[in-house]
Amino acid sequence: MAFDIFLLEVILSGLMTGVMYALVALGFVLIFKASGIFNFAQGVMALFAALALYDFLAEDGWFFAVFGFTLPVWLAIPATIVVMIVLAWVIERTVLRFLVKQNEIILFMATIGLAFVLEGLGDLLFGSDVKPLDIGIPQGASDWLLDSFNLYIEQLEIFAAGTAAVLVAILAIFFQRTRIGRALRAVADDHQAALSVGVSLDKIWVIVWSVSGIVALVAGIMWGSKSGVQFSLSLIALKALPVLILGGFTSVPGAIVGGLIIGVGEKLAEVYIGPIVGGAIENWFAYMLALVFLLFRPQGLFGERIIERV
Amino acid sequence: MSAVAKTNSESLLVVNNIEVIYDHVILVLKGVSLEVMKGGVVALLGANGAGKSTTLKAISNLLGAERGDVTKGTITFKGEDVHSLTPNELVRRGVIQVMEGRHCFEHLTVEENLLTGAYTRKDGRKGISDDLELVYQYFPRLKERRTSQAGYTSGGEQQMLAVGRALMARPTVILLDEPSMGLAPQLVEEIFEIVKRLNEAEGVTFLLAEQNTTMALRYANYGYILENGRVVMDGEAADLAENEDVKEFYLGVSGGGRRSFRNVKAYRRRKRWLS
After folding, report:
1. Interface test with A, best of B88, B98, B165, B178 (most A CBs within 10 A)
2. Contact B118/A183 with Cβ under 8 angstroms?
3. DSSP code of A93?
4. A266 close to A254: Cβ distance less than 8 angstroms
5. For chain A, which has fewer Cβ within 10 Å, the N-terminal or C-terminal residue?
């Protein structure tokens, strides 16, 4: 019985970590779907968003230095969303607009450059020290679960899972039910045709980068609350890669399921295979899994099937 | 080219001596002029690579996405210069293109495809849902398949969908590129019948690029023939269909047996090289 509880704990904690990966992967999927760009800067965007949010909240930030007061959480989050939208607009104006007609690889290179610029900008504006982000998400283990089921689960992770669920629901409604959402999917399917019916690509790109910036903010909040806002936050983008390969680059549900599989797989592997090979396999297990997937199902679990009529 | 036959109706779209260059080096259109009257069906004919599609894209300004550029000449719609407008603004003003090869949004349902056509409209849900019904009236087959993914519909249905999607924008003029491509003759006829009905009942003006000269001349009222990026001949559709040279070179029916090379040269001489 004790063993079962332990297994359950490992799986649950894996699922929760998986949700956090999925949040990052989601940002990639949105941009990739709408523009075919693999946005290397997604992780840095999460870092940048967390830094900006911290800046609105803390007394050692720019905002406090300029205005003499800090914002409450419920104002700081919308303010950061505005920052991310402005950022998306600036990126479209200064980078994407000039590269629209170029090859995808060139756009990818541009996002690498963008990652470095954003990283430097974040450092320059907010400093590079580790900042504790506290927006009032409950920390520590959930007492209720511990008492009644003898399960040890972080409250933050439960909160993250809930937030992710809400976020995905909102995104699903946005994509399926709204005019702009439909246009986004149309652009993802066929740029040219979307252009021909009067969809303005510039506008769509600003929107999709904004949405992706907001998703990055959510990811930034969760990871920032967990381990502080610091440069390494941008590296979780690398963990999103195997998630994307598993789930498929173009699928929102894929990003979620992929994240969960990676999260659970990683934890299980660490606990049950780890001791055999000397431990510390959590760091690379995800990539192994992704490699296996590339061999057998390169489009991922939920990747868009290529429609071929005969 | 002031010699374009002037009918008494007003002209809607005037293309005046345009030159189009792709990638800064490839000269595709070498001075094309044409005029589309309000309520007309104008056919743009010619072989592969003659510049039909490019002419349409120059008008709808989809050229930009293919690194093409109108370097000379003017394009006016309702008397206003529209050459530097984005496709988005052109659709708002009533000029929409149905691209060659249909280009439906494969992963969207048929109905979603149609609704995307109404993207630029600002007149509210009522108008859009009325037009959706109208499109379904013209294309009952689309109504049957409204919930299936467009990528899984047949070629004919996709062509209908592409035309229906353009209609949803409430256009004044539809630039229809190669509607017959890859379709069975019976379907081609069906599509052209609908074009005719749309033209008569809804007052939509059509400029269509077509390789199927027979079919195009049967349904159009005016035609232009392009060769190597130039207009070499134009006239009333009925006249063109009776023209011996057009019959020989584009309709594949020659009057009396094989013609000699001398006659070919005579045809060449008759063509207007400078437009």
Report:
1. B88
2. no
3. I
4. no
5. C
Nearest to A307 among B90, B106, B165 (CB): B106
Question: In this model, does residue A306 exceed pLDDT 80?
Answer: no
Domain spans of chain A, in order of start: 8-234
What average pLDDT is seen over chain A? 87
CA dist B61 → A35, A49, B95 (Å):
20, 38, 10
Question: Could you state, in order of their start, the residue ranges of all structural domains in chain B?
Answer: 11-105+172-184+197-270
ipTM reported for the complex, 2 dp = 0.85
**Domain at B11-105+172-184+197-270, CATH homologous superfamily:** P-loop containing nucleotide triphosphate hydrolases (3.40.50.300)
- For the stretch B145-164, pLDDT in tens is 999 999 999 999 999 999 99
Count, residues in chain A: 310
Residues of chain A contacting residue B62, judged by C-beta atoms under 8 Å apart: 192, 195-196
Distance from the Cα of A290 to chain B's closest Cα (Å) equals 26
| CB contacts, 8 Å: B165 with chain A | 197
| pLDDT score for B275 | 38
> Looking at beta carbons, which residues of chain B come within 8 Å of A195?
62, 65, 87-88
Nearest residue on chain A to B110, alpha-carbon basis: A186
In this predicted structure, which of A280-289, B12-21, B49-58, B67-76 has the lowest mean pLDDT? A280-289
Residues of B in contact with A304 (CB under 8 A): 107
Contact A309 B87 (CB under 8 A): no
Q: Please, what's the b/e burial string for B144-154 (b: 16 or more CB within 10 A of its CB; e: otherwise)?
A: ebeeebbbebe
Check: pTM over 0.80? Answer yes or no.
yes
